[in-house]
Design a protein that fits this description.
Layout (H helix, E strand, L loop, with lengths): L11 E11 L5 E6 L8 E3 L2 E3 L6 H13 L8 E10 L5 E12 L12 H6 E7 L1 H4 L6 E2 L3 H9 L3
């Protein structure tokens, strides 16, 4: 008797812009996500999916304003990666993430542009010193955030 292979779940393609937002003290902004289901809270950088017809740079600019209240040019891409994950909305995706580094003087964040979903799940944010990241008690994404920051420091 043969057993059919398990059906593979088709993952949705998710082009996304992500931002390494760094202040003058070299701290990086992270948002705490609380999915509200069986998943533990986690922290990640600002950013999100592209709107239809939107470029990665335009999405980075929009996300930076919507999530942090900061108007800034995201500059050039500093990294690209493909990652599989389950979104807050419980959709299996393969993300084509394009990363941008934005350096800012001030550390004030304005969440006025958050969507209803973001207001529900992005309840906290803070600027992280680099020495806090490795031993933080909750997951921080991307896993290699420190490496990405160090790799882009010379461009700042």
């Amino acid at each position: 008797m043969s057993v059919a292979p398990a059906a593979r779940i088709a993952r949705a393609a998710r082009p996304a812009a992500r931002i390494l937002l760094v202040n003058r003290a070299r701290e990086v902004l992270l948002f705490r996500f609380t999915p509200g289901d069986d998943r533990a809270p986690f922290w990640c950088t600002p950013g999100g999916a592209l709107d239809p017809g939107e470029s990665y740079a335009a999405a980075a600019r929009r996300e930076l304003f919507e999530e942090a209240g900061i108007r800034a040019d995201p500059g050039l891409e500093v990294a690209q990666r493909h990652v599989d994950f389950l979104t807050i909305e419980r959709i299996e995706v393969t993300a084509d993430e394009r990363w941008f580094r934005v350096d800012v003087d001030a550390g004030d964040i304005d969440p006025a542009g958050h969507t209803e979903l973001e207001r529900r799940v992005m309840t906290q944010w803070r600027w992280f010193r680099r020495d806090e990241i490795a031993d933080w008690p909750e997951p921080i994404y991307p896993d290699d955030l420190l490496t990405m920051l160090e790799a882009t420091d010379h461009d700042a």
